[in-house]
Amino acid sequence: MKPLDLDYMLGLVPVLLSYVPLTLAMALASMALALVLASLLAVERILRIPVLDQAVMLFISFFRGTPLLVQLFLFYYGLPQLVSALAQINGVTAAIMGLTLHFSAYMAESIRAAILGVDRSQWEASMAVGMTRGQMLRRIVLPQASRVAAPTLVNYFIDMIKSTSLAFTLGVTEMMGATQKEAAGSFLYFESFIVVAILYWIIVEVLSYGQRLLEGRMEQAYAR
Amino acid sequence: MLKALVIAAVTTASFVTMAQAQDTLRVGMSGGYFPFTFVKQDKLQGFEVDVMDAVGRQAGLEVEYVTMSFSGLIGALSSGRIDTVANQITITPEREEAFAFTQPYVYDGAQVVVKKGNEGDINGPEDLKGRTVAVNLGSNFEQLLRELPYAGEITIKTYESNIEQDTALGRVDAFVMDRVSSAEVIDKSPLPLALAGKPFAEIHNALPFRDDEEGRALRDKVDAALTALKEDGTLAEISQTWFGSDITSTE
């Protein structure tokens, strides 16, 4: 076994750290957009609007039923062949679009389940004290639903951060792309990939800690 | 976190890359083809970068580098995401039909490379029969192998990157790449590799442009710059720096 090139590894850390903002930015943008889209899809799935409902089901089925990598290639390399204007979309945008659509399909289902999970009696009680539909949703149903959905949604966000590494296949130099290039020039593959693995790991651990704090806060209101 | 939010806002806002003014030259490269285009400590460098910088100065063009996976480069050129590819693109009849090429700026050969110690068994392309060979996806070396009369007896594996590593690890019997960078990789990298025999095909590498009015105009500008750089010895000098020999002329 050859000794590891520790100097190279230490030198790589600051280089890769400078790509963390881009990785987080792609994940945050995708998460924000996916939350909006998933909420809309979830509400539609509860209301079951004719025709639109079939379209939403087809959407969810497709984006859950095909690999993310295939979807990214379809957007970035495939669609511009049909619509040449789409060639102007850059890799970062295509990655954000792909992550948004892919994850919103999953998130829609967990948001829907969380809303439906709020007990009927809660809805009836809100009506009984004379709340409007909007007040009922805002004050009674959504706070309880978000507590149920939060852990799952944070999990999807963690998955999203890791999935941004696929953007390097669209020519985006993010953490994984930068690592791949450094490795191709230094030929120190193990050193390169273990450093990037540890960096992703640290990011996810920091988030998991945040998740535990958040859940603790949300539980306080329900402490008996 | 705040910084990330700002970047998120900006990236989502810039849904469309702005149309380019034609005093810039967007040059695509993989950034993973040592020593032509590679990255060390986040700095893109190599023979191609030096050549394109010189071309930019000579032609009065602002050079902007775009890095992406090698197999995506030609597609990015066709769809107008970049203006040319500086990644040792070999002139082939098929590519000449689709693109407008400059004159060649590198004369090179196709080379078989094996794990150190196997150069006795494999001494050229004939010895690849019944073996597994790695090539870069979308490269002309893939095509060269497929055109050999005994291509049916060779198992060709295509890669996005890291063919050198897989050969050194013994996962494939050999890889085929250009002679110049093969020699450099053997010399400069820690990988146990060796040249197997002599180069088996002559290749001429040039810069491809889109074959439309705008593309051809840009090609003519760059081609004139290459002529000037050949005449004043700049290209030869850049080649000496990287390879210790002149690969930019046929002499």
Automatic annotation (TrEMBL), chain A:
Pfam families: BPD_transp_1. It comes from Hoeflea ulvae. Residues 20-211 form the ABC transmembrane type-1 domain. Belongs to the binding-protein-dependent transport system permease family. HisMQ subfamily. The keyword Membrane applies. The chain crosses the membrane at residues 20-43, 55-79, 85-106, 183-203. This is Amino acid ABC transporter permease. It comes from the Bacteria.
UniProtKB/TrEMBL annotation, chain B:
The lineage of its organism: Bacteria, Pseudomonadati, Pseudomonadota, Alphaproteobacteria, Hyphomicrobiales. It holds the Pfam family SBP_bac_3. Residues 24-245 form the Ionotropic glutamate receptor C-terminal domain. Keywords: Signal. Residues 1-19 form the signal peptide. SUPFAM superfamilies: Periplasmic binding protein-like II. PANTHER family: AMINO-ACID-BINDING PROTEIN YXEM-RELATED (PTHR35936:SF19), MEMBRANE-BOUND LYTIC MUREIN TRANSGLYCOSYLASE F (PTHR35936). This is Amino acid ABC transporter substrate-binding protein. InterPro entries: Iontro_rcpt_C (IPR001320), Solute-binding_3/MltF_N (IPR001638). It is found in: Periplasm. Gene3D superfamilies: Periplasmic binding protein-like II. The keyword Iron does not apply. CDD domains: PBP2_YxeM (cd13709). Residues 24-246 form the Solute-binding protein family 3/N-terminal domain.
